[in-house]
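Suppose you are handed a protein chain with no further information: no name, no annotation, nothing but its sequence. What can you learn? This example shows the usual starting point.
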Amino acid sequence: SSSSPALAEQAVLPSSQELQEFVRSVATETANNRSSMLQDMSARRPTEIDFLNGWIASRGVDLNVCVPANTELAARVREKQRSVQEDR
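A reasonable first move is to predict its three-dimensional structure. Written in structure tokens, the prediction is:
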């Protein structure tokens, strides 16, 4: 299987500095973009939160791995979605 532990051990992961540089470059390059989730909220459409952070939160439960930031973020976006929908 492609998700075998042996394969995972062979994966080359970026260093902390490389990861920080990548995140900063993406943030800089996309600073003027308007995220699809913000566009969805503005148009009072459902967001993709359940397919993003909600999925991670669900997998965390399945794997008994604590993912509090993803769980909290998904809950907050769902709460905001509800309040936006109620304002219609």
